[in-house]
Amino acid sequence: MDFPTWMAAIQARTESALERFLPLATTAPHRLHHAMRYATLGGGKRIRPLLCHAAGEIFAGDATRLDVPACAVELVHAYSLAHDDLPCMDNDVLRRGKPTCHVEYDEATALLVGDALQTLAFQILAENGGTPEMIALLAQASGSRGMAGGQAIDLAAVGKALTVEELEFMHIHKTGALIRAAVLLGAHVGAADDKTLFALSHFAGRIGLLFQVVDDILDAEASTATLGKTAGKDAAQNKPTYVSLLGLADAKHMAVDLRRDAKAALAPLGVRARRLIELTDYIVDRKF
């Protein structure tokens, strides 16, 4: 199976699994459940589920079992977007080409959507074979030592001149922690050994930063219509990015270096890491 076909298949099975795991809109409270489905379904590249499946496939992990952590990570990601877009955070009105959750519904509903999606992520992991180690991994990646902590650093950095090292520290937490969790959760389903987990952890660290660098480049170069979200928002809010710190040309050079490092980390896995290598190229070459 070529990469585009494989990617489309994983995206489709992720969408189907999320449909099953999310409460029906006809279940009370109807408005909240409708908004949860609105915020989660029908959009997004599903990068984290793709990474989860790609890592699990290295060890012949069962696709049905991989759907569980893949969806758990995606639910946490969807919750973070619903909260990030709120007026008290990034105050954005467009996400995945449609109105953000608080615009389509209201701020209180968007806040509850994020709360409910986060708890649902842990529920489905706990009820469908997630080990205590896997649950702890997702919890740390989502909390103050991971994504939430990174968002706090991001909010505090508005209007400030950060060093590249400080910016990297922020994004290791805000973006990288959940990406690392997606890779390692997939590897856990495939029963990876400690040596392989170490290699995948190093790969995930590089790919997490790579994703953010490319995101900053796209924010500077692409249009709102292409991105499906407001282009140039970081610059307008005076938020530090790799482009604002390094300049566009050097940010692109950094992406080249991170792609090389990520692939080098996978070298011990040989051809078994084919999908992760293909995903690395996809993350760099994507247009939105």
Any chance you could write out the topology, listing elements then pairs?
Blueprint: H1 3-21, H2 30-40, H3 47-57, H4 63-84, E1 94-95, E2 98-99, H5 101-104, H6 107-127, H7 132-142, H8 147-156, H9 164-189, H10 194-221, H11 224-227, H12 233-236, H13 242-246, H14 248-265, H15 274-285
Helix pairs in contact: 1-4, 2-6, 3-4, 3-9, 3-15, 4-6, 4-9, 7-9, 8-9, 9-10, 10-14, 14-15
Using brief descriptors, characterize the structure shown.
288 residues, mainly alpha, Farnesyl Diphosphate Synthase, two-stranded antiparallel ribbon, 72% helix, 1% strand
Radius of gyration: 18 Å
> Which shape, going by the Cα principal axes?
globular
Question: What portion of residues is helical?
Answer: over 70%
Question: Could you state the order of secondary-structure elements as H and E?
Answer: HHHHEEHHHHHHHHHHH
